[in-house]
Design goal:
The structure is a homodimer of 134-residue chains.
Chain A (H helix, E strand, L loop, with lengths): L4 E7 L3 H11 L3 E2 L3 E3 L4 E7 L4 E7 L7 H6 L4 E9 L2 H10 L11 E2 L5 E5 L9 E5 L1
Parallel strand pairs in A: 1-5, 6-9
Antiparallel strand pairs in A: 1-6, 2-4, 3-4, 4-5, 7-8, 8-9
């Protein structure tokens, strides 16, 4: 069912420093920072030949990643995102298999303007998993 | 400099259960478990269309991931691996940029029989980064 790894999301305490690290030290192509107020994050996209890394920093006062950064002040990998063809079919399959979908179970429009769901880390090897309709 | 994301490595407390999760719940193609005694891990490869997930479990008494599992009993993402063309050139670039290479700084032969280096998580946004010569 899952298709491509769409991205790996890394929460960082200092977005300009993290951007410089990926651009200058690791030599990758990085975007300008993009504020996404509805998602409470500012994101820099790191484009690799086969997938993306997303460097995330809290935006605004109620950022959903603020707590993660408090617990991980150096930053860390926040989630991985797998593509699926049909988000509702994926949601139903998760539930049938006994995996918990976060929130009310209804897909939301994600940072790429596509429907997404998040799955409970305790059900996925301690890893927060995002499913995005490709 | 960095090329493809070669893999995301996830340490799991129960390898058969994690394999079943990726195969049956997420519907991905999974390998048989492969013991890698020199690396102290047993690995199951999850093949996605654009990259791999590696499910890691400690093998033997001196596994380098045993401590991680003690700290993260549900499992978690352990490292991400980027491909580079020339591991020595990459190593020298890291050092010039002030990033710490773990160990003695000499590439070791990794789990894919290719030269690898690990970079200090504190210098990479709280993320353990492996570089592998492609």
């Amino acid at each position: 069912m899952i298709g491509k790894l769409n991205h790996v999301a890394i929460v960082v305490p200092d977005l300009p420093a993290a951007t410089a690290l990926y651009r200058d030290t690791l030599g990758a192509a990085v975007s300008q920072p993009v504020d996404l107020p509805p998602h409470g994050v500012t994101v820099v996209f790191v484009t690799l030949p086969n997938t993306k890394i997303e460097l995330l920093h809290p935006f605004g006062e109620k950022s959903p990643i603020a707590g993660f950064l408090e617990k991980n002040p150096s930053g860390g990998i926040h989630h991985i995102c797998y593509e699926v063809e049909d988000i509702l079919a994926a949601r139903d399959r998760m539930k049938e298999q006994g995996a918990r979908v976060l929130g009310d179970g209804e897909p939301k429009i994600g940072a790429h303007d596509k429907p997404v769901l998040f799955l409970h880390p305790k059900d996925f090897c301690g890893t927060l998993v995002e499913l995005e309709q490709a």
